[in-house]
Request: fold
Amino acid sequence: MYIFDIKRALRRFRKSEQGTVTMETVIMLPFLFGLLVFSYEFFDMFRYKSVREKATYTVADMLSRETNVVDATYIDNTKLLFDTMTKNGSDNQIRTSVVRYHQYDPDNIDEFELRWSEVRGEGELLKLTTADVKEAHATFPKMTNGQDLIIVETRSVYDAHLPFGVAKDTPIKTQMFMSLRFGAQLCYVGVCTP
Reply:
C-alpha cells in the first residue's frame, strides 16, 4: 500500500505542469553561473596558449631566416620579442637550440648532434645536452643527412583570473621545429663557424 502511494505521488509530480519561474531560476542560476565562469577560464587559457604558440612560431621563423652568426644579444632580443608579443614578460622562459642529424649508411645508424643551446628567463627549462638529443627519434621530425633543425621551446605559467579558477598556476609549454631557409647552418658565437 505504501509503495503504491509513492508511485502515485511520483506519477502526479511527473504529470504536473504547475511551478514557478522563480523557484526554477533559484535552482538553475548557480549551475549557469558556474558554467559561465568555467567557460571563461577555459577559453582564456586557450587564448593564452594560442598567443604563445604564435610567438614561438615567430621566433623560430626569425631564426630560420638568419644568415649571420647569432650572439647573446640576439638571443636576449628573441626573449624580448616573445615577451612583447605575449604581453607577459615576468614568467616566460625560452630555449633555443640547433640540432644536426647524421646518418651513417654502412651500419644504418642515425643520431642527432647538438650544435648549440641557449636558455633565457627563469624556470625549469635548462640548456639541452648532447645526451638529451643523441637518440631523440621520437621527439624530432624526420630529417635528411646533415640537416640542421632549429628548436624553440617556451614555458609560461597560466594563472587563473579568479581565485577559485580551475587552472591555477598551470604550466603552458610550446615547442616549434623549423628548418633553415637561407643559410646552410645557424651559428652561435664561438660554437660553430659559418
Q: What stands out?
A: Residues 102 and 145 are 5 Å apart (CA to CA). Residues 22-179 form one domain.
